[in-house]
Write a structure and sequence with these properties.
Helix 11 runs antiparallel to helix 12. The chain has 3 domains: 134 residues, Uridine Diphospho-n-acetylenolpyruvylglucosamine Reductase, domain 3 (2-Layer Sandwich), CATH 3.30.465; 90 residues, Alpha-Beta Plaits, CATH 3.30.70.2190; 83 residues, 2-Layer Sandwich (Alpha-Beta Plaits), CATH 3.30.70.250. Strand 7 and strand 8 form a beta hairpin. By secondary structure, the protein is an alpha+beta fold. The strands form 5 sheets. A 5-stranded antiparallel beta sheet has the order 4-5-9-7-8. The protein is built from 14 helices and 18 strands. It is 31% helix and 24% strand. It starts with a strand and ends in a 15-residue tail after the last helix. The chain is globular and about 65 Å long. This is FAD-linked oxidoreductase.
Length: 395
């Protein structure tokens, strides 16, 4: 299989225009760390963004950073850290969960709308994404957005590209707003709460004025013999002392929490972000389930009544990471039947190729949404060049 590695946007345009002329389907990749997410590739060649690399704009005072799509994410994060800044949404590193190599790239953060535990406070990647450049399926270079947040009338291409998984265009440059790194971080850890009680505690904390930046629950066996319910707070030290004290008073009915600080807390939240508790066994399928936070325990209980599963909660219970056997449909029918009654949607993040080929990986769309999705695809990629079928069969 041929691999194209354009050195600049103009070369990428020429490659795509040529492929469109021959209706040659192409797999779009960055570092390849998430290549096994989605339906198996239906392509004849690979188009890589790796040589589209380098920071193109960084204005610390304006809290804006832009870089070409193939720039290693770690390079951008290191640059921001030098000035005491960070990407607000805490992007996940999929390599351990997926067993993949390579380096996560800046463009892939936007293409997959990648966000971790801080999403409950800072929003998703798309909420900080303010500008994109991309090559569409005709080989045309498109620029949308810029260096400031704007109200948009009509089709917002910046938000449209976020989470499109390379099906609409090859991102060549992305621009994000950034935030200052907080002076201090501390985590309240409650022990022994069952799932429903833990989500009630997380909901009480999230509904308070004390501004959590992380809210997770690890059932027994995932982080030790006893369940742990975790609430992260960040900010200036004096403010943090006050908020920790008030939150402990508010939640006294749930027990006396341990306070975790320094590197131990950072390691703990990185493990939650990267789904480390469900990495093993490697043969298990892993699902990412989004639902109303208060419905999380009901969702897992209904699934567990029908098949063996292990799980933990992030986003106050609104994000459920669940591992189950990859045999058959990897639990797709069970999980989606449960969600039809509770509300929510599910994505099959990790499973063998044969399962992903036969099972809807992303949440199935209603007929009207499927027609709309197909229309958007046709408008941006009329020859079906980019990642055909990765998200939905035939699109």
């Amino acid at each position: 299989m041929r691999t194209y590695e354009p050195q600049d946007e103009g070369e990428a345009q020429a490659i795509v225009a040529d492929a469109a002329g021959r209706a040659e389907p192409m797999r779009l990749v960055g570092g390849g760390t998430k290549a096994a997410i989605g339906r198996p590739a239906q392509d004849e060649s690979t188009l890589s963004s790796l040589k589209l690399s380098g920071v193109t704009l960084y204005e610390p005072a304006e809290m804006v950073v832009a870089a070409r799509a193939g720039t290693p994410l770690a390079q951008v994060q290191a640059l921001l850290a030098e000035r005491g800044q960070m990407l607000p949404f805490e992007p996940m590193d999929h390599r351990i969960l997926m067993g993949s190599g390579g380096e996560p790239t800046f463009g892939a953060v936007a293409a997959t709308n990648n966000a971790g535990p801080r999403r409950i406070n800072a929003g998703a990647a798309r909420d900080s994404l303010i500008g994109v450049r991309f090559v569409n399926g005709r080989g045309e270079a498109i620029k949308s957005g810029g260096r400031v947040m704007k109200n948009v009338t009509g089709l917002d291409l910046v938000k449209l590209m976020a989470g499109s998984w390379g099906t609409l265009g090859l991102l060549t440059e992305v621009t994000f707003k950034v935030l200052p790194v907080q002076e201090r971080t501390a985590t309240l850890a409650f022990s022994g709460l069952d799932d429903a009680t833990a989500v009630a505690a997380l909901s009480a904390a999230l509904g308070s004025p004390f501004e959590l930046t992380g809210a997770a629950h690890l059932p027994s066996g995932l982080d030790g013999p006893s369940p742990r319910t975790l609430m992260r707070l960040e900010g200036f030290s004096d403010s943090l002392d006050y908020r920790l004290g008030e939150l402990r008073k508010l939640l006294r009915r749930f027990g006396e929490p341990e306070i975790i600080e320094d590197g131990i807390g950072a390691v703990l939240w990185a493990a939650i972000r990267d789904v480390i508790p469900l990495t093993e066994p490697r043969a298990a399928a892993v699902w990412r389930i989004s639902t109303a936070p208060t419905k999380g325990p009901a969702v897992t209980a209904a699934i567990a009544a029908q098949r063996q599963a292990r799980w933990f909660y992030d986003w106050g219970g609104g994000l459920v990471w669940l591992a189950t056997s990859s045999e058959g449909d990897a639990g797709a029918e069970t999980i989606r039947n449960v969600l039809r009654s509770t509300g929510g949607h599910a994505t099959l993040v990790r499973a063998p190729d044969a399962v992903r080929a036969a099972t809807a990986v992303f949440e199935p769309l209603s007929d009207p949404l499927l027609r709309m999705t197909a229309g958007i695809k046709a408008a941006h990629d009329p020859k079906g060049v980019f990642n055909p079928g990765r998200m939905y069969a035939g699109i």
